[in-house]
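During the no-cost extension, the postdoctoral fellow (Dr. R.K.) reprocessed legacy sequence entries with the updated structure-token encoder. One reprocessed record is reproduced below for audit purposes.
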Amino acid sequence: MKGLIMDYPLTLTQFFERTRKVFHKRRSRRARAGVGLERYTYADYADRVCRLAGALAKLGIRKGDRVGTFAWNSHRHLEAYFAAPLMGMVLHTVNIRLSAQDITYIVNHAEDRVLIVDASVWPVLEPIRKDLRTVEHFIVMKDTPGAEIPPGAIDYEALLADAAPVEAWPTLEETDAAGMCYTSGTTGHPKGVLYSHRGIYLHCFASSTADVFGLSERDVILHIVPMFHANAWCVPFAGVMNGSTQIFGGPNPQPRDIIEIVHNEKVTVVGAVPTVWIAIQGILEKEPQWDISSIRCIPIGGSAAPKSLIELFDKKYGAYMLHAWGMTEMSPLGSVCRPRSYMDDWSEAERYDVRAKQGRPSRGWTCGSWTTRAGCCRGTARASARSRCAGHG
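Re-encoded structure tokens follow.
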């Protein structure tokens, strides 16, 4: 019996089923859906995940097949985040902001058999639909009022309504692929990066620790970082693991949308790039009636936030900005800037100097042993990795 207690694979199935049982009634989930907010429980969410999984299997999608998504942040997108991997399929989040040429290449190269698409971005796909050689089924989600299902496509809600939910998940290995993203900003064609169940599982644990994002059941998370971009920094997976309340920005959220949701729903965690927060600050300056002090953590990346912005949000709005850095190949979190205890006696200016940096390697990542297509910062040709790695510069 030695070691038997700990002998189980680290798969998404583990924490999905735990959340389904532990948080099925306790926490409502909120989803931005064009007009107002829709609300449902984790029990409702789990049922829809099981129905989508059953529907994909009925369409003939099997273990190892790629299930593409082409969508904004939504509760439906999160249903796909789990339905595909739990069946042994590979979730492929396609960046809706890429060129038609790159989208065509990525979908064909990945050999996506299904594309789950928001109706609002269907016009991007329609002109290249005939060029997507491997796609057998287009499943369209009505994400805006008055949205229609294109001819020849499948209505997402009708598909779920007619589907028999999966009653038992297949046995998976922790080394099985769960998801994939394609890099951008590289030379040549975008490159595909696979994420294992084990990798996402451990990434979620790292994100939940106090020195990283400290995600918990108490959090109300607003997703603005695109779910088609490096798994929205993997926070949607971690939110499910912890049973957090999650809110989704929906189609093309604007700074005012973020402010209103934070104010009305008492959001505690919301990440976005610095330009978004600069725009938010401009609105708050003119409209002081908005209260965003519920925010305890703003994970910020994409570019360096000015030290003055970090200090302003601390002192004026009570919202803590937390610099982080990562890349697609890393699931994506690489470093987080949490000031250390020995810095407590430093001057305020010195502490803000530290917080303006990208921090130190996060748990689960050892720069000396990390190897992927891009390699470690010591050997990679990617300037971003070389210049920002906190362990070596």
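The first helix runs from residue 12 to 22. The CA atoms of residues 59 and 165 lie 14 Å apart. The remaining legacy entries will be reprocessed before the final report is submitted.
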